[in-house]
Every structure is written in structure tokens, then in C-alpha cells.
Amino acid sequence: MADPSSYRPKPGQIPDSPGVYRFRDEHRRVIYVGKAKSLRQRLANYFQDLANLHPRTRTMVTTAASVEWTVVSTEVEALQLEYSWIKEYEPRFNVKYRDDKSYPYLAVTMNEEFPRVQVMRGHKKKGVRYFGPYAHAWAIRDTVDLLLRVFPVRTCSAGVFKNAGRTGRPCLLGYIGKCSAPCVGRVSAEEHRELAEEFCDFMAGRTGTHIRRLEKQMMQAAEELEYERAARLRDDIEALKKAMEKNAVVLADATDADLVAVAEDELEAAVQIFHVRGGRVRGQRGWVTDKVEEVTTGALVEHALQQLYGEETGDAVPREVLVPALPEPVEPVQEWLTGRRGSQVSLRVPQRGDKKALMGTVQRNAQQALALHKTKRASDLTTRSRALEEIAEALGLDSAPLRIECYDVSHFQGDDVVASMVVFEDGLARKSEYRRFQIKGFEGQDDVRSLHEVLTRRFRRYLAEKERTGEWEEDRPDGTDGIGGIGGADRPGDGLKDDEGRPRRFAYPPQLVVVDGGAPQVASAKRALDELGIDDVAVCGLAKRLEEVWLPGEDDPVVLPRTSEGLYLLQRVRDEAHRFAITYQRSKRSKRVRSSPLDAVPGLGETRKQALIKHFGSVKKLRSATVDQICEVPGIGRKTAEAVAAALAQAAPAAPAVNTATGEIMEDEEPGTTAGSAGEPVSAGAPDERRGQER
To answer: What ranges does the record list as Gly residues composition bias (predicted)?
Structure first.
């Protein structure tokens, strides 16, 4: 590894102007390409104290052996040159996009004498009208099959077309009316081109004109008693409407826009693009990238736009490009897009209305794409084996940790403090063995003490069961542990039973305990195990900010490579524990705040509670009722009525909205709030809008 000071240029040698720079390794291979508004200021950031650099940046500058730069006149030129060099050199430390397939387009070859409709992939050709891209080629063929009834444009290859002209007989589509058969002279080249133009107009979004024209012709045919022609036109209209249903209107008519969304974590990012033309979603595409460098969402957006529009044969730039975050600075990118389009392009973040709603849909697609990518990656046996081996090597374990347990603590502004335990066996989640804990040993927020309490309860149970039977039982789904924990008595063997009445047990103890956090959390977990005399379970922590692995008693963390499968598995385990803890914490908070004054009435069950609410309509009206009026409700005696009136009188007079079915006070829930029992798979739901207040 090189010392950056050995190749650091003198400050006076670096120009204070826009440009593009390249870091090269000792073999003269380009390992990083970047652009800067001021080369002098940007490069100075790389040659500071290594301890102040991000680990990924530190690795890059110590791998490099030289740096060089090229001065340009504007930031737009720097943007263009940066993209060209990234494509040429494919530097290992730049963001790398993996677009695993060439997306299909619906193409109309208007550059030919007899235009042809077909599916095309790869580089775009001059004189060809493109619509899309689409996710699947069959989606294009289904749409074309519907439209050929109304716009019988040629779809055959050049060989078939010439053969039909030589024999004087059209192909099957010509016989069934789905081709106008220009090959045998049924229509002229001009008439066929006019059909192709109408086809393109319809695909471009001008659908109302064609449908209104056909409806007028249908009515005219019916008036002239040409019922067969009217029926054929009716079927044509239905075919067009069915084709339109495949491309539902999402924005105002004639709106052309591309919507770009990014879903990311510390290691990877998924990009999704929706192409809207004429107010309709005409296509969708996406890819996944490894984040081998420290990069912001705005920088990911900038790279995505370069990928999307950078090639000479790339996608056409629409009037609007909607993104989740703007690149910094945004002016050069916007100027570059305007130059690519030839007219003004609006690059912005949607703030309200239909465009923001559609951006939410694109964002959900990106999140699902990232989750699917992670699932596919985790399901590979070879990858999982390599991940476990890398973890064992990095942590100095004797063998691969076939069973990993991860713990996380969650709370809402210091209240409803809970913890979660998730279990991974052979690199896969064992959701049936997830467990949840309530923190009741102390009041307030203290993640370190919470982890100590949870691990103490967890492994105290293990020791008790090991001493009694050589085996050990699981914690209860409600967080009790049966060893003097929450609601539990100090007696082992008081756990849940299986179908045959035997205590349910874990298969075997974990080889590795992972906690969400850094050195303090790891020290707390290790202290809990030491106090119980457990020395055969390894402990580590994964700090979220820099994805560093902390070991007990170590001053410095273990930094796994960004491409390490072991780091990916640890991150996935940690994120799953965080999700499970958040879900439990939300469900507890929801149950706590969703209560009714009627809950305080002794002996009043759900049936009579619902009867009261149904009779009076709301708790507010019930509160104003007299005891005699309450007695009129079937099943409510005078004693119960007096208890109801007394309970409502003691409750606060101002009540929020009430569920008329149950009498429960309703609260606006956060998206994705899902209450589940322990061990149940709990969906992640939508992104938490108050994540900053909740851990």
C-alpha cells in the first residue's frame, strides 16, 4: 500500500479550475475517476490525515500510486468527460451499475420504405421510432397484437416480405386482417406509411383522437344500417381501449417525464426508472449498484442520469426528469440534460400532487428490487458458505458460525423500550425462532443496559435448562423468560409446550452473538456473558454508520471489504433485528394509545361495548346520556349503566375519533405498523416517516 504523501502534487501545481482527475495504481491502471468544480480544493481533500478519511476513501488513496488531471472549461464538460472515462476505464472504486439485461423497446422503422413494427434491444438506430422500454418482450407483443387490428402495419422480416412479393401471396396476418399486405400491393407505400404514423401517434399518447374517430364511424355505419361494419368498428374500439388499459394514465395528458428513484443501504443501491410518455407509463427499467465508494443519494442520481442518457444511442431526454434528490451542484447536470435534449429540461424533486404520488410508487419498486436482489443473493448456497467462512476468518473463530443470533433495542423517545432477537441458521433466517423482549429492569432509554438485561435473561435461561436437562428452552413470545423476568416466576421449565406437551427448545446454542452497535454495546454483551460464565459464544457488534465490526476489548474495529459476502450477511442479520424490534415497539405503542374509557368498566365485554357504541353512535354521545337512557340498551342493567356513566365521567371530556365497531379511540397509525406475535414473519411495510425520532 502506497503512502499518499509520496505522490501528492504540490498545491501550486494543481489548477484552481473545473476538471476531471484520475487516480492510478502502481500498474498504471485507473482505479478512480472524479470531477471537480475546483481541482485544487477537491484533490486537497484526498491528501489529508488518513485517520480523517472515510475507510473506502482511505483504501483508494493508499492503493493509488499517482494522480493526474485534465482541465476543462465548464462543469458540463467535466461531467461529460467523467462519464466517458468511467465507461472507458471501468475504475474499481467508482460506482458500478449492473444492468443485467438490455430492455426491449417497441420500435417502428420509419427509415424504411414500408415501416415495420418490431421488438428491438440494444443500440438505437437513426430514423427508428422507439417506445418503451418495457420490462418484458411479451408485454410489447400483447399490445401490438391488439393494435394491429386497428393499425394493420407490417411486422414481418425483410425475407418474409420479399418472398410474399415474389409469390404474390401475403402471410397469415395478411389473410386475417392484421396486416395491410403492402407486400402484394393491397395498399401503397404512402398509405402504409400513413398507417404507421397513426400507430406511432397512438403509442405516443394521442389516443383520444383515434377512438373518437372510430366511434363516429361506428355511429355512421349503424345509421346507414351497415351493422357488420359497425360491429367491426366496435371491436376495434374495444381493442384500443384494452391496449390503453395496459398503459394506464398516471399524469396529465401529454406529460412526458422520467421518474428516477433510489433505494439504498450502506452496501448497495437499487435504481428504478419509470418512463412516462403522453401521461402514460410506457416502460420501466432498473439496476443494482455496489457502493464501493462513499456516495450520497444525489450523487447516485447523477450517475443514474449518466447511465440513462450518456450514450449516443441512449434514451431520449424528456421535458421533465423527476428525482428523489438533486445532484450537487445541480446546474451542470441540468445544462448537460438540456444539451442532450436540445431544449430546456426540468430536473427537480416532486413536492406534491400526482407526480409525487407516482414517485412514491417508483420508490416502492426500487425498495422491492433491492429486497429481491438481497433475497436472491442470500439464497445461493455457495455465497452463504463463503459469507460464513469470511466471518469466521475475520473474527478469528474456530469454525463457521452456523447459528447466529442478533439483538437490537428499540424505543420511541425513551418510552416503550423493547428488544428483539433474530436467528439465522446456515445464513438463512429462522423466523419461527425470533423472540421479543420488554425492558422492565429500569426506566428510560439506555441501549447498553437494555442489551445487558436481554442477554442476561436469554443466557440465564440457557444455563438453567442446560443444568436441568442438558438442553434449554426458548423465551416466550411475549418477552417473558420464566426466570424471574417479565411476568415470570423463578423456575425453569415453565415455557411453551409443543403439540405433544413437551417444552419447545432451540436446536443448539449460537456460535455467534451480534449486537447492533459499536464498542459500548459489544462490551455490555460480553459482560453479560462473562457474568454468567459463558465463554464458548463469540460476540461482535456492527456499527451502522461505517459498517465496522467491533470485537470485545479491541480498540480498533475490523473493517471487512465492501464486496465481502461476510459483511453483507452481518448487515442483513443486523437489519432484520432492527426491523423486528421496530415492529414490536410500534405495536406496543399502538396498543397503549388505542384505548377506550369503556375499558375501565368492570364486567363490560366486547359484545356489550359494541352494543353501546352502536346504540349511541359514539363515546361522546354516550357520555352525555343519562343512566336511564343507557339502561335502554339491550343487555345493559342498571348497575352496569351506572358503572359506565361513572367511568365516562372520570375520563377526559375531549375524545378523539372513535371506532364505531369497538369503541376504541383511533389514532393515525404510521405506515407499515404491523403487530405480530413472536416468531411470526412481520412485513417491513412502508418507510417510517418518523424514523429520526424512533430507534
So the answer is: 481-490
